[in-house]
């Protein structure tokens, strides 16, 4: 089994770049600070050193590039969620009632 090479930003600019690429766009990182389902990965990365066992294993190099393996694109997630919701709603009845414009 290959050894995992963990990623840790080298400075605050590097950290901000990483957050821009992953955390700020992730469905697991809610936009509201009051949300109950906050992602704890970035907090663990800030609280622990890379050589401590609590440091998140999700922040690692994949094909030589830093990544978060837990990342789920927020836009894609919302698109899938909307599609699933639309599959549940009986669109024929909504169209007949003239209600489709309300949910689009």
The number of E-state strands comes to 2
Q: Largest sheet, if any? A: 2 strands, antiparallel
What's the arrangement of strands in the largest beta sheet?
1-2
Number of helices: 5
Return the string of H and E elements: HHEEHHH
- For the CA atoms, what is the radius of gyration? 19 Å
Q: Roughly how much helix do the residues carry, as a percent range?
A: 40-55%
**Broad shape:** globular
Our estimate of the beta-strand percent is 5-15%
Quick check: average pLDDT? 82
**Unreliable spans:** none
What is the CA-CA span between the terminal residues? 48 Å
Q: Count up the domains.
A: 2
Question: What structural class is derived from the secondary structure elements?
Answer: mainly alpha
Give the key terms:
5 helices; 2 domains; 2 strands; 104 residues; mainly alpha; globular; two-stranded antiparallel sheet
Summarize the helices and strands and which ones pair or pack.
Layout: H1 12-21, H2 41-47, E1 59-62, E2 65-68, H3 74-88, H4 91-96, H5 100-103
Antiparallel strand pairs: 1-2
Please give a structural write-up.
- The radius of gyration is 19 Å and the shape is globular.
- Strands 1-2 form a two-stranded antiparallel ribbon.
- It is mainly α.
- The protein has two domains: 1-72, no CATH class; 74-104, no CATH class.
- The chain has helices spanning 12-21, 41-47, 74-88, 91-96, 100-103, and strands spanning 59-62, 65-68.
- The protein contains five helices and two strands, in the order ααββααα.
- The mean pLDDT is 82.
In short:
This protein has 104 residues and is mainly α.
């Amino acid at each position: 089994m290959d050894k995992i090479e963990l990623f840790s930003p080298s400075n605050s600019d590097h950290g901000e770049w990483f957050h821009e690429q992953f955390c700020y766009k992730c469905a697991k990182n809610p936009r509201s600070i009051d949300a109950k389902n906050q992602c704890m990965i970035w907090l663990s990365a800030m609280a622990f050193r890379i050589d401590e066992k609590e440091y998140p294993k999700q922040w690692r190099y994949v094909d030589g590039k830093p990544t978060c393996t837990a990342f789920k694109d927020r836009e894609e997630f919302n698109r899938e969620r909307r599609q699933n919701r639309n599959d549940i709603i009986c669109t024929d009845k909504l169209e007949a009632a003239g209600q489709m414009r309300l949910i689009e």
